[in-house]
Write a structure and sequence with these properties.
mainly beta, 1 helix, three-stranded antiparallel sheet, 9% helix, 104 residues, single chain
Length: 104
């Protein structure tokens, strides 16, 4: 079973669905995109911070969630940026595509 992220016109994830594995000749991203009328990208439940939990190859840096952005340049799903506070600012780590905090 594979997971697919449905994207709006701004590449924001609106839904994550379960679907067929891409082991067949069918391009399931295209199939589900046509079915739902939007862009669809496969996402890996086992990938977080550009590391695969099972020791396999990480896929698109992070498992997609609703509100995440798909960055086509990085081929990555990125969580919404946390809000800065008076004490903390957030910076995107380009390797993991996770937000890292630092003190101001």
């Amino acid at each position: 079973m594979a997971h697919y992220a449905l994207l709006d016109s701004n590449n924001i994830v609106t839904q994550v669905i379960k679907g067929n594995d891409e082991s067949s000749d069918t391009d399931w991203e295209v199939y589900y995109g046509n079915f739902h009328g939007c862009t669809v990208k496969r996402t890996s439940y086992n990938t977080f911070g550009n590391v695969h939990a099972g020791g396999g190859t990480p896929f698109r840096k992070n498992f997609a969630g609703i509100g995440y952005t798909y960055d086509s340049t990085k081929d990555a799903f990125i969580a919404p940026r946390p809000s800065d506070t008076e004490e903390i600012t957030w910076t995107l780590n380009n390797t993991t595509c996770l937000w890292e905090s630092s003190e101001k």
